[in-house]
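Retro notes (design track)

What went well: tokenization of the new backbones is finally stable.
What didn't: we kept losing track of which sequence belonged to which structure.
Fix going forward: every design gets posted as structure first, then sequence, in one message. First example under the new rule, 293 residues:
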């Protein structure tokens, strides 16, 4: 089955390419990208005004649509131009697709409303950011287009993904690792008891590849079912790096909320044995050490 991949140069996309290659499927891949990849056939796209253009092969069976603007830091979530770009890119892509058999769209848990309850596929959808709204709008376009063309469609909402390759992101784990490696003070601006659930990028890629190969349709949260506190993450990173940095709790009274998930629907359809967090952190620490060499 010939598969078109978008977003192959990003954090998630690179991991998906690696997993597809490991599964022996690399010869069936075509990339849609802004730059050529010497290892895979690549369709180069261009932006003409507010419309993307490309010349896609007509024998594509499956699309795995990963490509999108993804915020690298908290302040980026409200970028209206980049949010509109997500919608424009997806709209242009849908209008130029051949007769597919399968479509997998990569979305985000940022479409959900804030809640103190475990998040599942049935949780209230109400984004609080331009990024979340852009991905939700794209979800609806993809689902409507798939229904109109009688195509099997699977929407995957990615949760908190971590691991090798996320150096460009100013998120909790990469920031803590870099601070620990530099011996800087790790400041936690809460009591540190709030729970977070992190899924390793390799596990995420395995689910995406399974979704492309399977006939499963519908909506799935690609999330971890193993929450851990922010303070525990900081302490584990300090221990694994061998750092003598200090962990300082700056505000014990600030109100926080847990981010935990019910991933039972995911596991029923895409069996997954999660990588142990400590192993994943060790691999990411080594990755950052190599970047510093």
């Amino acid at each position: 089955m010939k598969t078109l991949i978008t977003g192959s140069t990003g954090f998630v996309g690179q991991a998906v390419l690696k997993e597809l290659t490991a599964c022996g499927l690399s010869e069936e891949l075509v990339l849609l990208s802004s730059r050529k990849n010497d290892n895979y056939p690549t369709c180069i796209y261009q932006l003409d005004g507010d419309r993307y253009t490309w010349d896609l092969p007509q024998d594509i069976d499956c699309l795995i649509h990963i490509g999108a603007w993804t915020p690298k830091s908290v302040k980026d979530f409200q970028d209206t131009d980049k949010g509109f770009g997500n919608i424009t890119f997806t709209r242009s892509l849908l209008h130029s697709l051949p007769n597919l058999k399968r479509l997998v769209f990569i979305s985000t848990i940022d479409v959900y409303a804030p809640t103190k309850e475990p998040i599942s596929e049935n949780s209230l959808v109400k984004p609080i950011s331009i990024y979340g709204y852009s991905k939700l709008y794209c979800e609806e376009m993809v689902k409507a287009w798939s229904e109109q063309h009688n195509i099997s469609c699977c929407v995957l909402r990615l949760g908190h993904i971590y691991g090798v390759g996320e150096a460009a992101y100013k998120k909790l784990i990469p920031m803590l690792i870099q601070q620990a490696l530099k011996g800087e003070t790790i400041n936690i601006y809460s009591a540190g008891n709030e729970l977070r659930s992190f899924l390793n990028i390799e596990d995420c890629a395995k689910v995406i590849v399974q979704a492309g190969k399977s006939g499963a349709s519908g909506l799935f949260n690609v999330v971890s079912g193993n929450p851990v506190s922010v303070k525990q993450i900081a302490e584990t990173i300090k221990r694994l790096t061998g750092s003598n940095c200090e962990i300082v709790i700056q505000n014990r009274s600030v109100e926080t909320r847990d981010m935990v998930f019910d991933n039972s629907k995911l596991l029923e359809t895409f069996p997954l044995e999660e990588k142990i967090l400590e192993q994943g952190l060790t691999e990411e620490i080594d990755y950052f050490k190599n970047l510093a060499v």
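Added context from the reviewer: The chain has eight helices and 15 strands.
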